[in-house]
Write a structure and sequence with these properties.
Length: about 220
């Protein structure tokens, strides 16, 4: 690692520098032979920058940056043909990545387990997942408390076999060979638990239909 990497920037705290240095080492070990050091550093750097303008909890920034960089590196490996596990990849996109797409991600992951890969993102990511969405999913035994709003990047979109959009319109890049489907669903921002339950159930119905179309065995 060189002194040009993100964790040596003077505007970062000592704790942030240490956390990012440790994250870079972990990612380098995890993607050894798949992604080069320069790519890993760049993805960690840009992921940190993307969350720095969104997060209100600076201590969590290195963790979020590492998690998002890891997802992006996995996506890049798929795009470049360096990771072939045969699992279909579905990407759920909405505006804030705080309600609809997080509910869809929760259902898809719950129903498919490790038989498929699911990611989510937003065109204008919020600062937290809608608490009512978290509570609504918890009622059905699905925990999405570890999820967080995030943007999407080109490599994540390119790695997906199916991209489901929900209100992000023309903001989503279109790549040849990728299947796109738009779900017309209201944005639940500001809704309470009673209001969000019907949306949760409608998204469940659509996710189950998508799983059937992809011929993925559901739990």
């Amino acid at each position: 690692m060189t002194d040009a990497t993100v964790y040596y920037h003077q505007d970062l705290s000592v704790d942030q520098q240490l956390a990012l240095r440790t994250a870079a080492v972990r990612l380098a070990r995890e993607f050894d032979g798949t992604c080069g050091t320069e790519t890993i550093e760049r993805f960690l750097h840009t992921s940190f920058d993307q969350f720095a303008s969104l997060s209100s909890v600076p201590n969590f920034l290195p963790l979020l940056a590492e998690r998002f960089a890891r997802q992006r590196l996995h996506a890049l490996a798929r795009v470049e043909g360096k990771h072939r596990d045969g699992k279909p990849v579905v990407l759920f996109l909405c505006t804030h990545n705080a309600g609809r797409s997080q509910i869809a991600l929760g259902w898809f992951t719950h129903l498919t387990g490790n038989r498929a890969v699911a990611w989510s993102g937003g065109s204008e990511p919020g600062t937290e997942v809608n608490p009512a969405a978290v509570a609504a999913m918890a009622e059905r035994g699905i925990d999405i408390t570890d999820e967080y709003p995030k943007p999407w990047t080109d490599e994540v979109v390119r790695a997906a076999d199916v991209v489901i959009t929900m209100g992000c319109g023309d903001a989503c890049p279109v790549f040849p060979g990728t299947r796109y489907e738009n779900w017309v669903l209201d944005d639940p921002a500001g809704w309470d638990l009673d209001g969000i339950r019907p949306l949760r159930d409608e998204i469940e119905r659509r996710v189950r239909g998508l799983i059937d179309q992809l011929a993925i065995p559901a739990n």
